[in-house]
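Name: Sporulation histidine kinase inhibitor Sda
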Amino acid sequence: MAMLTDEMLLESYHMATELQLDMEFIALLLAEIHKRNLEINLTIVH
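Structure predicted for Sporulation histidine kinase inhibitor Sda:
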């Protein structure tokens, strides 16, 4: 995870959730996002 830039990490998280990948993988990404104190911008599409 350390090799990912913050932008790449956030993009990976958004893509993983969009594609409904394994929840354990998403949880790993989310843990790293919290570790780096990054904010997740949630966009709701109607």
